[in-house]
Amino acid sequence: MATEQLQIDAVDVHYGQFQAVKGASLTLARGELGCLLGASGCGKTSLLRAIAGFEPVSAGSVVLHQRQISSAQATTLPEHRQVGMVFQDFALFPHLSVRRNVGFGLTGLDRKAQAARVQELLELVEMGDFARAYPHELSGGQQQRVALARALAPAPELLLLDEPFSSLDTELREQLAGQVRRLLKQTGTTALMVTHDRREAFAMADRIAVMEQGHIVQYDTPLNLFRAPATPFVANAITRGALLPLEIVNRTDGRDHILYELALSADQRVPCRTGPDIDLAVGELLSVHIDLDNAVAFSP
Ligand SMILES: Nc1ncnc2c1ncn2[C@@H]1O[C@H](COP(=O)(O)OP(=O)(O)OP(=O)(O)O)[C@@H](O)[C@H]1O
């Protein structure tokens, strides 16, 4: 019995003779956040559009909440899929207030219930004070939060995000990616995001599908992609530096600090003191940045 919320099985997408997606398979459990990561032209958007129902699949199938919505034989219309979308350019209606933008897809609710749902979603994305504002009065990050509220308002079975942060500056991107992850987890939303930015993918996703020329070359947790990249292509897509795995082998909690013992290898242990907010478990693996300003070099 299928327990997955989203099941993509051996999907092909063609544009005429050209095959943009080749036998792509992945699954997402309910509430799980996935990401399609890869360079420009590798087929990420084509696969996302096929899941949304904007492109037909030429082979394979897409099953959402145990309902087949795409196969070579039949395609459910996008508006009947219970799939929400967030786009790169926010795509808010410029002539509608924030409140009406968010309420737009809420059909079948009476006015009072609709207003309550809109306010609930605006509070969730911390835009409760902006209900009467218009899109042009908001910053890019605020507009994207409204777009997210609008997509989440009808409680879709799946949320698709197409490069949702790419028109924002780098610092805001990572910050928003983290916020959006917390929000999607809080609402138990199942979501699949497209990005070419690995930092964004790592900030957001439980599982990442690395794509290369139409293929999903590896679909795994961020940690496993680091630990066991399937191919050199994946290793390169994930990190351009050397990998230095550290495992937490010991933890001692002080009153205002935590002392960790990190193992670099069986006989190399590194002590590390952090604030009480860095809460890590023994056995956890870390990736670290080396700050060369503080490095000490010894002559051989
Ligand atoms: N409507 C179309 N007609 C013909 N070819 C297309 C069409 N849309 C996309 N392609 C081609 O399919 C391939 C995959 O495109 P797709 O947009 O899925 O890639 P992507 O990984 O999302 O890239 P990007 O990050 O640049 O958006 C590319 O070679 C592209 O030129």
Automatic annotation (TrEMBL):
Would I find Zinc among this entry's keywords? no
Q: What Gene3D superfamilies does the annotation carry?
A: P-loop containing nucleotide triphosphate hydrolases (3.40.50.300)
- The ABC transporter domain extends over 6-238
GO MF annotations in UniProt: ABC-type ferric iron transporter activity; ATP binding; ATP hydrolysis activity
Q: Which GO terms describe its biological process?
A: quaternary ammonium group transport
Q: Does the keyword Aminoacyl-tRNA synthetase apply?
A: no
Keywords for the protein's UniProt record, in alphabetical order: ATP-binding, Cell inner membrane, Cell membrane, Ion transport, Iron, Iron transport, Membrane, Nucleotide-binding, Translocase, Transport
Q: Quick one: a GO cellular component term?
A: membrane
One Pfam family of this chain: ABC_tran
Q: Which PROSITE patterns match?
A: ABC_TRANSPORTER_1, ABC_TRANSPORTER_2
Q: Signal peptide position in this chain?
A: none
UniProt-listed InterPro entries: AAA+_ATPase, ABC_SmlMolc_Importer, ABC_transporter-like_ATP-bd, ABC_transporter-like_CS, ABC_transpr_FbpC, P-loop_NTPase
SUPFAM superfamilies annotated for this entry?
A: P-loop containing nucleoside triphosphate hydrolases
Origin: domain of life = Bacteria
Q: Which PANTHER family match?
A: PUTRESCINE TRANSPORT ATP-BINDING PROTEIN POTG, SPERMIDINE/PUTRESCINE IMPORT ATP-BINDING PROTEIN POTA
- Protein name as annotated: ABC transporter ATP-binding protein
Recorded source organism is: Halioglobus japonicus
What does the organism's lineage look like at the top? Bacteria, Pseudomonadati, Pseudomonadota, Gammaproteobacteria, Cellvibrionales
